[in-house]
Amino acid sequence: MGRRTPASSTTITTLLSLAGLVAALQTTLVIPLLPDFPEILDVSAGAATWLVTITLLIGAISVPTLSRLADMYGKRPLLYVCLAIMAAASADSRRGLNAGVVQNVFGSVLGTAMAPIVLVWIAQNFGWREAFYLAGIPGLVLALLIWRFIAEPDPNAIPAAAGSQEGGLSPWRMLRERNVLLCSIISCFSVGSTVIGSIFMPLYLDGPRGIPAETWKWTMSVVGLCPAIGGVLVAALSDRIGRKPPMVAFAFLMALGPLALLMFNGSIVPLTALMFVSWMGLGIFPLFMGVVPAETLGGARAATAMGLVVAAGELTGGVFGPIIAGKLADNYSLDVPMWLQAGFALAAGVFALGLRETNPRVLARKSRQEGLTA
Length: 374
Description:
Largest sheet: none
Number of helices: 20
Number of domains: 1
Oligomer: single chain
Radius of gyration: 21 Å
Shape: globular
CATH architecture: Up-down Bundle
CATH superfamily: MFS general substrate transporter like domains
Low-confidence stretches: 79-90
CATH topology: Growth Hormone, Chain: A
Strand content: under 5%
Structural class: mainly alpha
Order of helices and strands: HHHHHHHHHHHHHHHHHHHH
Distance between the termini: 53 Å
């Protein structure tokens, strides 16, 4: 057989975006059905929430494991590394934007929005087991499409950044790289801030702010559009002006939402606007989870580096952040989780200040300018 003709960047981005959607759909599979599981499994409501915790833990363990296998044996057979394939297949001028579309537009927004509607309807009409079975079908179909249309990416398509040391696939050696270590720390704080906000913002709107549920649900729906808009905006900016400046600015911007809830005393409309602007900060996720680690270590080690950064965020901020925030809220007040959310966002911005620029086009432009002034 002849060599597979490489698919276009648009085809690859589309297929991997759909894969991100399916991954998000399956990751959130348990959540819309959670109210029914105490009765189904004959357990308490508290015990049923362990289904979500276990799902997050397995995801945090599987991402670095599959990512390392992908760097060892090839990325195409392992669909969890779609960001690594996308990064290798994208031109320097579109790598950030494509990452934002794959992770934030399809995965975070459409996947999360579809799960409650589709899965609850299936569960109500056919049964909860059937909902789980049917949720697996899109993944199988996409696996066949990816196998058919996407070739194994060239591991040398993304060269390692200047000064990066070759250290194999050891996570500890990767963490010696300044950008990978910083991205892992940023992941801990950013994921923690986002998860805490997702859980406690509705409680704060309903409780201390005293906003009727019929009103604040619309606020949350508007805020739910932010990852898609922020993902495109931040990623597109990073392709033009570099990865570091938008990461710093939008990480700090994530603190605006909880601070507005705590300090802004105006009506719900400007409050929603402030929260909308703040939550566009989630557009930094494709950069610190995918683009910057890939451009720092190169395509040959991209998947392992991405898995390391994702696992760091999910195991710390994703799993323990809500537990700590919940304990503090019980012992003190719902103000504390909001301060914690804001503090985590500010910490992410501070650590982003230490990143080294990785955008090849920006680095080349800077090098030319230095050559002219020399």
